Amino acid sequence: MCSGRVDLEFILRAFANGQDGVFIGGCKLDECNYVTHGNYDALANTYLSKKILEHIGLNPKRLQIKFMSGADGNLLADYSDAFTKEINEIGPLGKSEGMDADVVKFKLKAARKLVPYLRLLEREKLRVPVKSKDAYAEFFESKEVNLLFDEIFSEKLAISQIMMLLGEKPLPTSDIAKKLGLNPSDVSRHMITSSRHGMINYDTASNCYALA
Question: What is the value of pTM for the model shown?
Answer without folding.
Answer: 0.90
